[in-house]
Amino acid sequence: MGGRTGRASLLLAQACAALLLLAAEAAATEAAPEVRVQLTARRATILSSEIAGRVAALPLREGEAFVEGQEIVALDCDSYQARLRLADAKASAAERKLEAVRLLDQRKAVGKIDLDLATIELDASQAERDLAAKDVSRCSLRAPFGGRIAELRVKRHQYVTTGEPLLDILDERELEVELLVPSRWVSWLSAGTPFTMRIEELQRDYPARVTRIVPRIDPVSQTVKLYGVPLGEHPELVAGMSGVARLAAPAAAP
Question: Which pTM value belongs to this model?
């Protein structure tokens, strides 16, 4: 009888220990719930053509790096340069004409209206030259920041129209973490809150921290968007990777 009682007590103790372990694990899970995260490039954009023309040069391929100010697309500029030369000639002629009219005006040989018209003609020709020069500058597309080519949307010798997307670029050195969390978490979340993210593509954990909270709650999903940054140097991380993040709420937080 005593043996049975002892065995029952042992089984009861083991069951209680198992229940306590499950409760501890549940509490840990509640303290650090998981939400989906995605890595995005802080600086990324689609560059489009500001003029119509034929693609004369694409010096870089997808994945290759460039520095700020480097030419990454060149359009055939012959016609635009010809227009600039024509505009220069017109501006020079208007300038010479104005000088002549001023000499005649000093001798009282022309009226004030002639001087005004010559001045207006020079202003108009100079504006036309400025527009032509602007078009010539648009023949060369230069990188607004350093980064890599994410996607080429055109090929060399292809004709493109004004506003047509040419390529996607991004700066993979400055990554952000996007998270959607329950809106009730805003009571304890703030800029600087640390969290851990597990990137699925690499099956590794990385430390990160919250940098800012979007001040708008989605009324349907009752979620709010957060942004964070990975801590430390991790060249293996690239834009587009995703995973889960664990944010540990304070003990008193809901």
Answer: 0.72
